[in-house]
Amino acid sequence: MTTQARHGCPTATPVSDTGRAAQCTDCAALDHGRRIATDREADDDRRFGLYLAWFGPGLVKVGLTARGTRRLLEQGALAYTWLAHGRLATIRRAERHLAATGHGRERLPGSLTQVAWWTLPPAGDRIAAVRAAATAAATELARLDGLTLTPLAVVDNLDIYGLDRALPGRYDEVVSLATTAILTGTVTAVIGRKLLLASTEAGTEVLVDGGLLAGWRTVHPPATPVAGGYETIPRVRPSAARQDSLFAW
Length: 249
Known about the structure:
- The chain has 249 residues and is of the alpha+beta class.
- It is built from nine helices and nine strands.
- It is globular.
- Mean pLDDT is 85; it is low at 245-249.
């Protein structure tokens, strides 16, 4: 039986201020989930699901998980549907086949998915886009032997994340945190592991990747907090022409 126990780092190696995971390089190399994602682990008796996730216009991802809906929410999938369920080897083969035939990517950089937040179509159009992509993917999967398809049922997550409102045309993204960092604000959206804060000190909304917080101990700020101890870069809504070029693939 496969177990997913957590263990402390044997060398207590610090994670850098810009690290997006609570693991050093050596621990990440041993992580069971990462080994599955990089085809270095085939021994897992859990039931896996093959999904098609939509992150914005032109941004379709195919992937597998044994953790159900939680994995889709962690990634910040704006809408999704399951395509099939089964053993790891079968589902991984189907995932690779869909990626190779152009039905979705196996990985999407956060820089692309964040840009898409600015130009999301209405709910009906989002669901139609996912259904069309999933129908085409299911048709392709029907050609594979030994795969049982799952009935398509599109789920839309925008209201869960707080993206059912217009985002500001600019926000600052936190790229590093120091031990003494103080960042205060009101959470306005939580998209996957990314938090959007309305920050009085910054004078704009601030995006924080929860991965930056991994491994840190968080405490309540002092009564009169002074923000600082972190670095940001501005994110500005791109022009229509620039956005089209980003999503082309």
